[in-house]
Structure formats: C-alpha cells, structure tokens
Amino acid sequence: MSSAAEQEAVEAVSNAAEAVRSGRAVPVPQIDGRLKERPNGQVRSQVVRVHARPGAPVWPGSSHPLGARFHHGPDGTAGTNFALWAQGAEAVEVCLFDEAGAETRCTLTEHTHEIWHGFVPGVRPGQRYGFRVHGRWDPWTGARYNPAKLLLDPYARAVDGDFTLPPEVYAHVRDWPQQYIADTVRDDRDSAPFVPKGVVVHDDDDWADDVRPKTPWADSVIYELHVRGFTMRHPGIPEELRGTYAGLAHPAAIEHLTRLGVTAVELLPVHQFAHEDHLLRRGLRNYWGYNSIGYFAPHAGYSASGTAGQQVGEFKRMVRALHAAGIEVILDVVYNHTAEAGELGPTLSLRGIDNRGYYRLQSDQRRYSDYTGCGNTLHAGRPHVLRLITDSLRYWVTEMGVDGFRFDLAAALARSMHDVDMLSPFLAVIAQDPVLRRVKLIAEPWDVGSGGYQVGAFPPLWTEWNDRYRDAVRDFWRGALPDVRDLGYRLSGSSDLYAWGGRRPYASVNFVTAHDGFTLRDLVTYERKHNEGNGEANRDGTNDNRSWNCGAEGESDDPRIGVLRRRQLRNLLTTLLLSTGVPMLVAGDEFGRTQDGNNNAYCQDNETGWVDWSLLEDPAWQSLFSLTSRLIALRHAHPVLRRRAFFSGRSQGADGLRDLAWFTPAGAEMTERDWYAPAAALGMYLSGRDIPGRDERGRQVTDDSFLALLHAGDRPVAWVLPEAPWAEEYEVVLDTSLEAQSDPPRTRHRGGRTLTVPARSVLLLRVVS
To answer: Where's the Glycosyl hydrolase family 13 catalytic domain (predicted)?
Structure first.
C-alpha cells in the first residue's frame, strides 16, 4: 500500500471515530483489503424512533404465507399477518404508517425457519407499511443491515409512492469523499419519509367469470407493447385513462388489437420498478421498467384508479377485458436483477433484508457478481430466492390472471454456481410446477456473463427469442448475406436450433424488431443510432443494427427513397408472418412508428417512446397496417403457415412431392452447391397436403399449398415457376412491390412459365391446380 493511500485510509479512520462520537454516519474503512478494528468497537444498529409511536400488540401469527395477508385471526379478530424471510437478521420490525406519515413500529418476536412473523390485530386493507431489519453492518462479509432504512416487503401486493433516490435512501453515505470506501460507510439517516410503502391488499377474487383464451403456441401471434406508451397518445382513449391499465382495457385499444388479429400482448415490465439515480440526475426516468423492485405489485404509475391497492383491481379488469377479446396477456419479467444495483446502489428491499442471502456475491463479498449489466444478480439457485420467484409467478397466474411470461436475461436465472446450467434449480422447478408448466414460457436466452449466449439450448416447455432469425432476415433484405443457407433455416422454423428433445418449430419466437433497438421504420431509415437524447453522448445502445437507410440517413423528401423504404417494410413484415415459428410484432411497427433513430429509448418517457396514432391518418401507413392485418389473417386461415412439427423435406407420395422444397429462379430445386453460392433470391414451396397431425376430431389436416418467392436483389429477376408435380397453375396472393395491398390482383400463371419478380419484393402464390 502506498504511503499516500495509507495516509488517506488513516484519515478515513479518524473521520470515522469523529462520526461515531457526533452521532453522524458511521464509516467502516478497509485497509489493504483487510478488515481493521473499528474505532468505536463493534458498531451496532441504533434504532431511530423519530415520528415513531409505541408498538401495537403483536400476536405470534404464522410463518406462512410470506408477506402481508389480511384475515381473521383468533376469536375472529380482523388483522394482518406479516412474515418476512431474513436469515441473518437480529431483529425485525414491521412499521405502519398513517395518512400523515406517522410511524408505528411493531416488533416481530416470532422466528420460525428463518422467517420473522407476527399477527397485528386491527390492521386492515389499505394500510401502508414497511420493514426495518436489524443486524451487523459488515460489508466485507456481505452484511449490510441498517435499520434506519425502511425496506419494501418483497411480497407486497401493492406499492404506494415512487422511488426518488435522495441520499437518505442509501444505507451507505452516497456522497462520501473517498468513493472507494463509500459503500462501507453507514448512513444512519431515516429513509422512511423518502421511500414508497407497501400496501395491505385483500384478494378474494376467484376468476370464475373469466375465460382464458388458451391459444396454442403454433397459432399465436405476439404483440409486444408498453402499457403507457401504447395508450398515451391514442385519441380514442379518454385522457384520464391514457398511460394506464384502464387505458389498455378501453374498447378503443382492444379494437386495434382485434383488427390487427394478434392473439397475445407481451407487456413490457409491469412489476413495481424504480428509476435509476443517473437518470433522475439528468431529469429522465426509466421508461421501459427493466428495474424491478416489487415482484408481486403492479407498477403503481400505470394506475388510473389509485395506488392504495386499487391498482390490483384495475390490472385484473384489464386482463379480463383482453381475455374477453380472445387476447392472452404475457408479462415481460425481470427476476435476474433488482433496482438496488451494485454496492454503491440504494437500499430499497432485499439488500437490507439479507444481502448475502438474495444476491450473488464475489469472493470479495463487498462486490456483486454481475451477469446482467445492471450491477447485481439474484441468486436463483438458493431455495428462498427460488421461492420468491416461483411464488411471484404463481401469483400472477392464479390471482392476477396472466397467461405467460417472457424472462428477461433468462440465462442469468439458469446459472448454477457460475455457468449456465440447463439442469439448474430454476429450470427444474419450473418444469415440475403444476401451475407454471402449463403457461407460456419465453426465454431471452442470454445474459452478459461468460457463456451466457444460450439460443437453442433451453429445454422443452420453453420458447425462445430467436435473435438468429432477426439477424438473418435483416441481413437478407439489406443485401448482406453471402448466401441463403441461414435464411432457409430461419424461414422454416430454425430446425438447426430447435429440432431436438421433442421441441417444436414454435420454440422459435421470430422477430425482426423488439423494444430494444430500432423500430421497423427506423431500420430502413437509419444506419447509425441517434441516442443523443439519452444524455450519454450517444455511447449507449448497440452499434450492430444491421440496418440500411436506403440511400439517405434519416427522414427524406426524396419520393424514390420513400417508396423503397415502404417496400422494405412490407418485405420484412411479410417475411416474418410467412415464417414457421411464432411471430412477434412491436406496437406501432404495423403503421410506421419511429423513434427518430434512437435504438435505446429506455429513458424516453415522451413522444419518442410513445406510439404515434396520428400515423394511421396517412394513407401510406394505413396501407402498411392493412397488409399486416391481411398477413395475420392469412396465417390464421392456413395451418401450413403455422406448423406444429418440423418439415421432413422427404417425399410423402408416389409423385415425389415433399412437404418443403426450395427453388432457384431457374425453376430448379436447390442443390448443395446452390446453398453455398452467392444469391439474393430464394423460393420456398410449402405443401398443404403433408401437414403432420390431426384436428380435434382426429381428421387429417390439409391445406392449400403455397410458393413464396423472396428477392432481395436491386434488379428484377426472371423466375421460372415450378411445374408438375408441384403445380399446374398458381395464383398471386400477395405482391410487396405494390403500394396498395387491400385488394391485390388475382392473376394466374402456369407452372413452367417465366414470371418477372420485381426488385426487392416478395411474391406469394397459391397453388390452384
């Protein structure tokens, strides 16, 4: 250790002693990586009882269930049972707050299997509460207890208030001059006036009046949307309901979804979340919500009816309204990390309850293992953390009515000690859970740690976001694929990734865009990200956009560029909705939503991030919406486009006709050499005669046969149509070279004849005879 650094550490120790004597925050410095004796002996938590009333009577209560549950106790007395898992705690207080903010503390004296619990008579629904947890302050061993910090119940069903993150919310002195030891300096200021509170909620809804759509995976079309962003600018939604669950439940919102034909909405995070400190300092907010802190509570900011528990009922009414329209509700959930960030982050809940028990720590237990890029990683391999996650999932299914989940950075949840393990406790528990194994499960199959990329590796029951599909389709239409091998796999269900272990083509969730990255319109308008509005000097967001601006960066008045861009949009949407697998659209892409080139709009809670419904007044974007709805309707009408099993590619009859065949523009079937040759065109024949499986009455499923011609070249190509046994005659169903798609010409062409396919276009032909 250098003399200068040693002198700095000695000064820190001196400051610590003075802080102890004066009653200010207690610093506990580290020298040479070793824990030195503290200047005032072992520092114990000092209970700060400012504005606190004497404790109410507490009966023993029960250790199950966890959280705050209102019920009638002994002799029919109404009250609430509080139970909190806090393994290393020395004492736990439940803190009750009245409307004026006055605090009453009740000590939970019962301790069963590491759960502190007690029944408080007279506490009814609507009561605001939090916990204070006493224990050692010893960051070097991962212990970060600080009873001056009011903690949110991990099982809180509703949250009242917002996280603003002033210095008082940090268990350490956030602005300590020596930042390298700041996380070891305890801050004893009371955080209660500055943090949201949990709310006691009584839930006796049995969902008897709800009918779940239960759409089969193969028939699903997913629509990713943001509750606030989808509704904020919708002219048909009353202003007081915009940005809320009630707004999404409004007939005007649901009418758009049903016209489009999607079967499920995938909601960006609706768990209670907090805004990051660095955003608040720049006057921004976390818009997407990937910063969860309450895994049982609907985010209060999306409630039109109130935040004292009313948000729970409002969310349920939204789910019922969507179900009544035949639309499933899938939640994007973030169980890989929490809003408490790294060691310099705020203490909001789990860190103060049992830091070592909930988070993955490094060998230096001051530090967190970060497989998420967000500062911390929940330790899903531990029983109590796994219980928190699965209790939350079951709650949203059984008591909130949702139909499935998309797991953000799912690979982080599947890690055992360090490596991703497909036999991990998390995946094993999900596979055997009688509730969770029956709902839709979607993995984002990667995290940011070593070995975290796991596309194609998740076990049966799971579907996955397939970024290999995204990249191949983008590259094909921008002319960046050297050949068409990868495209062939992606169009036909990605059998190279998923044809193992009983998995099906619908294991692949196909997407071209998602919330993270360019919108579809921006994908054909920008080649570079334009994230200056995020306040990070355009450093945030990916540089690997695989986009093509069609000749000009940004919006252009050149009519030729506008025509080309709209054609490219039609090509991308058509490719997506004709591909085998589960298609996922992003809200607004069907009518040209733009974020002005921002490919990381996570903090743009404004018109950049919100859907602009005025675009539907433009005939050009109306036409794109019409094409998208036509393609979805075509998909629903034809089982050959939504297969439940992979193609075999083998002859099924004496005529040699196969369920899937690939053709060159010369009209010949693709050979091995053709797959490796440079090419910008690919023909895909889908036979409706050879669909595996039977309908509900046991009858063989049959359908029309189709030929899709995809041509990404910049000049027209003469294409010889395959003749018998493939077809005698074809009918054009769709031509993306046409601006108007509402009523395309039903022209017919004989097999063996040459058809001119326009540059950069898709032609879909139906076999007539």
So the answer is: 224-635
* Partners of residue 378 on adjacent β-strands: 359
DSSP H or E segment with residue 476: helix 467-477
Q: Show the tokens assigned to 646.
A: 């992979």
Q: Distance (Å, rounded) from C-alpha 223 to C-alpha 585? A: 5
Identity of the amino acid at 578: L
What's the pLDDT at 659? 93
- Residue 594 CA, chain-centre distance (Å), reads 20
Tokens of 743: 């009523």
Written as one string, the DSSP assignment of 524-573 is: TT-SS---GGGTSTT-SS-S------TTSSS----HHHHHHHHHHHHHHH
C-alpha 87/C-alpha 325 separation (Å) is: 46
What is the residue type of 558? D
Distances (CA, A) of 242 to 87, 97, 303: 43, 30, 10
627 φ, ψ (degrees, to nearest 5): -60, -45
Which two tokens mark 238? 């009353």
pLDDT exceeds cutoff 70 at 281: yes
Going by pLDDT thresholds of 50, 70 and 90, the confidence category of residue 692 is confident
Q: What are phi and psi of 619, to 5 degrees?
A: -55, -35
Residue 330 contacts residue 442 (beta carbons within 8 Å): yes
CA distance 88 to 91: 9
DSSP 598-622: -S-GGG-TTTTTS--GGGGGSHHHH
Poorest-pLDDT segment among 524-533, 688-697, 719-728: 688-697
Is 370 a residue of the active site? Answer: no
Q: Which residues contact 197 (CB under 8 A, 6 or more apart)?
A: 97, 128, 129, 130, 150, 152, 159, 160, 161
Angle, vertex CA 194, rays to CA 192 and CA 198, nearest 5 = 60
- Identify which of 292, 287, 381 has the alpha carbon closest to the alpha carbon of residue 338: 292
- Residue 17: exposure state from Cβ atoms within 10 A (0-12, 13-18, ≥19): middle
Q: Which is the catalytic residue, given 190, 266, 354, 444?
A: 444
Length of the chain: 769
| Residue labelled with tokens 């995290």 | 447
Residues in contact with 69: Cβ distance below 8 Å, sequence separation at least 6, in sequence order: 80, 81
What SS3 state is found at 731? strand
Give the number of other CB atoms < 10 A from CB of residue 295.
Answer: 23
**Half-sphere exposure for 14 (CA within 13 Å, toward CB):** 6
- Whether 277 is catalytic is no
- Show the tokens assigned to 2: 């250098």
Q: Where are the beta strands (DSSP E) in 145-218?
A: 159-160, 185-186, 197-199
Q: Is 282 helix (H, G, I), strand (E, B) or coil?
A: coil
pLDDT at site 691: 86
Q: In which element (H, E) is residue 412 found? A: helix 410-413
> DSSP of 122-185, one letter per residue?
T--TT-EEEEEEE--EEGGGTEE--TTS-B--TT-S-EES-----GGGSSB-TT-SSGGGGGGE
Q: Residue 629 and residue 633: Cα distance in Å, rounded?
A: 6
* Terminal-to-terminal C-alpha distance of the chain: 85
What are the pLDDT digits (tens) for 208-234? 889 999 999 999 999 999 999 999 999
Q: Please, which pLDDT band fits residue 57 given cuts at 50, 70 and 90?
A: confident
Please name the helix (run of DSSP H) or strand (run of DSSP E) that holds residue 487, with its range, or none: helix 485-491
The residue from 138, 328, 408, 735 that is catalytic is: 408
Helices 559-578 and 619-637 pack at an angle, to 10 degrees, of 20
Distance (Å) of CA 516 to CA 208, 346, 540, 598, 600? 37, 26, 12, 10, 6
pLDDT band at 650 (very low <50, low <70, confident <90, very high): confident
433-448 residue pLDDT tens: 999 999 999 999 999 9
Q: What is the DSSP string of 395-410?
A: HHHHTT---EEEETTH
Partner residues linked to 663 by β-bridges:
669, 683
3-state secondary structure of 464: strand
Question: Which residue, chain included where needed, has tokens 């959280």?
Answer: 67
